[in-house]
Amino acid sequence: MSLQPLPKAHTVAASRVLITGAAGGIGRCLHRALTGRYARLRLADRAPVEAMGANEETLLGDLADPALAAEAVRDIDCVVHFAGVPREAPWDAILPNNIVATVALFEAARAAGVRRIVFASSNHAIGFNRADAYVGIDEPVRPDSRYGVSKVFGEALARLFVDKYAMSVACLRIGSFRERPEDARQLATWISPRDMAELVRCAIEAPDYGFAVVYGISANTRARWTSPDAARIGYVPRDDAEQYAAEIAHIVPPPQDPAARFHGGAFCGLEHVDPPEGGASR
Ligand code: 15L
Fold first, then answer.
1. Closest ligand 1 atom number to CA of residue 174
2. pLDDT beyond 70 at 100
3. Which helix (DSSP H) or strand (DSSP E) does residue 127 occupy?
4. Which residues are catalytically annotated?
């Protein structure tokens, strides 16, 4: 599916947008979709990014450095924060990249008067909820990994910045971002590139919404995550993983595997130990 740039925005509150993690998989998708849409698009990453238009700037460096974070947010209306380690990793990777850098960026944004942040959270913030139950945004968080803990941390930071500093922060609990879904779990968790770009566009452009948590999934027939806040930012997904069901519905882990029992899939199986017989049940 080729992704066309979205048409230019004429009447949006945020006309100067920063995307962090712009060289990553989702970052590149957002860049392609949003190029030309805003008065300024700044693209930050530790890896080089190539500008696509005259109104684009690139910034190379590590956001855990407060000076770099301050430079990244200067004269920006909306920060779209997708930088960080996108998978499970040791603490010495998660702490600097997903926690220290997120704090540095949020604090820099606040100090610079930025009013809005779009935060790339993840379904792994709730991954240890049982797969046979629907999960919305009021269930307790149950991270399934150190990576998931970093996303819970980011959501808590977001809540603080909304309640204390009256900013708008959207936490997008992204599911499985792929060109097409690859297994039975992703029939529920998939988000297409087109819907991903639309979700972020909505979070950038909607009127002030305070704190919002929205699952980043397409309009999947088998979806098990519910997003009442989606309507508040105007997100209406268009794709549905179901069209691929015949090819992939048979790709399932064994029923006793944690990957089958919990929402977070394979992340739940990593280092997983079942409670002893008669112990606390999950
Ligand atoms: C994520 O948060 C990861 O970044 C991605 O690699 C996928 O594993 C996805 O979640 C998922 O749950 O499928």
1. 2
2. yes
3. none
4. 147
For ligand 1, the distance from its centroid to the CA atom of residue 130, given in whole angstroms, is 17
Q: Tell me how far the alpha carbon of residue 267 lies from the centroid of ligand 1, in angstroms.
A: 8
Q: What is the CA radius of gyration of the chain?
A: 18
CA of 94 to the centre of ligand 1 (A): 15
Contact 87, 124 (CB under 8 A): no
Q: How far apart are CA 213 and CA 228, in angstroms?
A: 8
List, for residues 32-67, the tens digit of each pLDDT value.
999 999 999 999 999 999 999 999 999 999 999 999
Domains by residue range for the chain, with CATH: 16-269 (3.40.50.720)
Residue ranges in 95-235 assigned as alpha helix (H)? 101-111, 146-165, 186-189, 193-205, 230-233
The preferred substitution site among 26, 97, 121, 124 for testing ligand 1, maximizing ligand atoms within 8 Å of CB, is 124
DSSP-derived letter for residue 282 is -
Once rounded to an integer, what is the mean pLDDT over residues 253-260? 96
Q: Taking CB atoms and a 6 Å cutoff, what residues make up the pocket around ligand 1? A: 86-87, 122-124, 174-176, 189, 265
